[in-house]
Known about the structure:
Elements: E1 7-11, H1 16-27, E2 31-36, H2 39-51, E3 55-60, H3 66-80, E4 85-88, H4 103-131, E5 134-139, H5 153-173, E6 178-185, H6 200-207, H7 218-229, E7 240-243
Amino acid sequence: MRLANKVAIITGAASGMGAATARRFGKEGAAVVVADMLEDEGRAVADGINAGGGKALFMALNVTDEAGWKRIVAETVRAFGRLDILVNNAGISGSATNDMLDSGLWERVMAVNATGVFLGIAAVVPQMQKNGGGSIVNLSSISGVVGQAFVHMSYNASKGAVRTMTKSTAVQFGKDRIRCNSVHPGLMPPMRTSGATADPEVRARMLKAVPLGRAGEVDEVANAVLFLASDEASYVTGAELYVDGGFLAM
């Protein structure tokens, strides 16, 4: 198993890419903390992992809550004895608006997508330093690399912040054997918070820019996260892994 004896926290793990990653980690031998605000859905993901022979606990977490982050790290170590992996997956879409200059949406998206990632990194680094290392995988997006006409600029800005925050983390904490990498999904199944990106006409236009000619699947993102989290990527840090069907190659 590729994550045997590892302990991982995955945020936004009650649905979508987070849930797919949690299930994959469970199959690969990791003890998984399913962290989310959606308690029923999150508990169902954890229960499914346990039913399949893995180890998982659900823990409620609002990623914008610094105290909540400290609590969940402490509870993880109490339950499993260590912490090896953080997957900062939780995020909200910036496409559910008709006002591209909505300052309130800017605050909400930046709080979850950017500040939430920083708070996660800040919470886990001290524990990983005690462990002698660890792996952090941050979910950015193709939106963190290019501008887009149909999403609020807060989404591009927040995912761009994740992209560069990843590199900063890799540089600052490489001496502690803490690796940090980012994954950049392209067109995927719509998020719960999606707006325009869930519209069939918008998705059809987006597909025209994808060389592989199809949308991605959440399990394809989970596979990329698994690689970066695992010891197979032991000399990979500060890197960007695109899971976008070739979109950013255009």
